[in-house]
Amino acid sequence: MTAADPARTRVADVVARTLAAHGVRHVFGMPGGEVVEIVDALGRAGIDFTLARHETAAAAMAAGAWAATGRPALLVTTIGPGLANAVDGIADAAQERVPLVVLSGVVDRTIRGRFTHQVIDHRALLAPLVKTSVEIEAEGAGATVARALAAALDGPAGPVHLDLSPGVAATVVDRPADTAAPGPTAVLHLSPRAGDPAVGRIADRIATARRPLIVAGFAAALDHGGGAVATLAEAIGAAVVTTYKAKGAIPEDHPLALGAAGLSPAADAILMEAVRAADLVILIGYDPIEMRVGWLDAFDPARTVEIAPHRFDHGMHRAALRLEAPVAATAAALVATIGGHQGWPRGEVEALRARLAARFAGPDRFGPHAIVATLRAHVGDGDVVTVDSGAHRILLSQLWTARRPVTLLQSAGFCTMATALPTAIGAKIAAPERRVVAVMGDGGLEMGLGELATLRDCGLPLTVVVFQDESLALIALKQKAAGLARAGVDIGPTDFAALARAFGGHGATVTDAAALARELDDARVRDRFSLLACRFDADEYDGAF
To answer: Which keywords label this protein (predicted)?
Structure first.
C-alpha cells in the first residue's frame, strides 16, 4: 500500500475519521517525518491543516478555534523537539480549560529500545499538564481516540495527549472492529426545574438576602449563561462581578454589572467592598484559577453558595452549599421559583459603578486609555478581540465594555505571553465570517513574530493592534513599586509597520486617536492583515490600575 491509496484503510485514517466524527474540522501544527501519514489522513477526513511557525502558537490557534466554535481543538507535533516546543501552549490549555487533543509522532516500537535521536519520554514530559496520555495502537485505534476525546471534553475540560508512531499510522487495517471510527456518545443531562428541592434550598437563601452578589466565571459564559445570569440578577436585584474570561456573561453596560475582577488592585479594592457588603454571594460557573492571592478566602462560607456544572479543584474558598448542574438551566429554575425580589438598596450599585468608572478614567492625551477607547468604539459587539498578557491587558480588561460572552479572549489562568495573535488566527480560521482583532504589547509580538507569516499564508484579514511603549511595562511597574532598579525590561524601537509590510500586510504607526480610528475603519475592508503600532510612553501606565 502507498499513502495515496484510497482503497485501503490505515490506522491514521481511523484516527482522522474518529476526530472528524467528534466535530474536529481544523488542525494546527508543524509537521515532521513521524507525522506525515496522519497529516495526510486528516486532510482526507476533511480536517484542514494550518501550518504555524511555532508549536506553542499552534496550540493557541487550536484554542482560538475552539473558542469560536465549541469544537474540540487539535494540535499535531512531531517527535521530541516538536512536542517540547508545544509545552507552553499545552500548559496554557490546561489552565484555560481547553479540550485540546495533542497528537504527536513517536519512534516506532521496533527500534525504541536502542534508538536515541530526538527521543524523550513524551508521557513524562506532559504528565503534569494532560488529563491522559496514551499511545495509539493498530487494534482499537478509533476507540482509543474516542476515549481521549471524552476525557478532554469532560468538565473541567483540558488537554489530552496521543502518541502515534509512523509504522502504526501506516498500518493497513481491515477488521471491522479496527476500521470503526466511533462518534461521540449522546449524553443526556437532567436539568433542574422550579420545584426541585435543590433549587428550593438555594432559592430560600436568596429570599432572605438584601444585598446578593453574583460572581460569574467562564463556565457561565460557555454555558450560554449570559442571558441567564442577567435575568437572574434582575430577578433578585443582585450586583454582578465576573472574571476576566467571563466578561460579557452579563452585558457590562447593564446597571447591575460591576465589571471584572482578579488582576487590577485598584478595581479589586472597590469590588471587595461589594463582597464585604453582600449578605449572600452566589458563585456561578466560577473557577478561581483566574484570580490572584487577594481573592484567597474572599467569601464567608456561611454566606456563599455555588452553582457550577462540575467541581473545580482549588482551595481558594469554601461554600456552604454547592449545586452541580448546568448554569443556564439552574439560573432559569431559580428565576421561576423566586419570581421578583428586592435586592440592593437603591443607588448603592450605581455608586460602585460610578467609582469604578472614575477610577479608570484616563487622560485626554494619546496613550493606553485612548487606544482602548478608540478600539472599543470601532469594534462591534459580536466581533472577537484577543488580548495578550501585559500591562495593556489589565487596563483593557477593566475598560472594555463586553456586551456578549466569549468575545474577549485571553490567557487569564496561565497568563502566558504571545498568545493573542495565534488565538486570533485560530478564531478567524474557524469562524471566517467574524471580524477578529488581536491586541498585543510590543514584547509579546516580538516573541511571536513568525506568526505574521501564518497570517500572510492564510490570507487572513486580521487587525493587529500593538501597544508599543518599548518596555515590558508590567514588570517595570512591579520593579518600581518594590523600589528596585530597572533591569531587563527595555525594548528597542522596532519598526513594526515595516515588518508588517515585509510579511505582506499593511503596516502603520499611529500616535493619535484620530489616526487610529481611520486605520481601524480602513482595516475592516482590507483583504489582508493590518498591523497598527500605537506608540506612547510607558509612563502612561503609572497609577493606571
So the answer is: Thiamine pyrophosphate
**Angle of the 391-399 helix axis to the 473-481 helix axis, nearest 10:** 100
Cα gap 220→307, rounded to integer Å: 9
User: 112: which 3 cell numbers?
Assistant: 525504541
Residue 248, domain extent: 197-356
Q: What is the DSSP string of 46-76?
A: T-EEEE-SSHHHHHHHHHHHHHHH-PPEEEE
Q: Does 144 reside within a domain?
A: yes
Q: pTM for this structure?
A: 0.95
Continuous segment of H or E residues that includes residue 87: helix 87-95
Domain count for the chain, please give it.
Answer: 3
- Dump pLDDT digits (tens) for 39-93: 999 999 999 999 999 999 999 999 999 999 999 999 999 999 999 999 999 999 9
Q: Are 541 and 360 in contact (CB under 8 A)?
A: no
Q: Give the up-direction half-sphere exposure of residue 417: CA atoms within 13 A in the CB hemisphere.
A: 15
How far apart CA 430 and CA 432 sit, in angstroms, is 6
Q: Which of 144, 179, 214 is the last residue of a domain?
A: 179
How many other C-beta atoms lie within 10 A of the C-beta of residue 257?
27
Torsion of CA 74, 163, 157, 438, to 10 degrees: -30
Specify burial of residue 383 (Cβ count, 10 A radius: 0-12, 13-18, 19+). Answer: middle
Q: Report yes or no on 190 lying in a domain.
A: no
Neighbours of 457 (CB within 10 A): 13
Do 349 and 380 lie in a common domain?
A: no
The Cα 103–Cα 63 span in angstroms is: 15
Phi then psi dihedrals of residue 192, to 5 deg: -65, 150
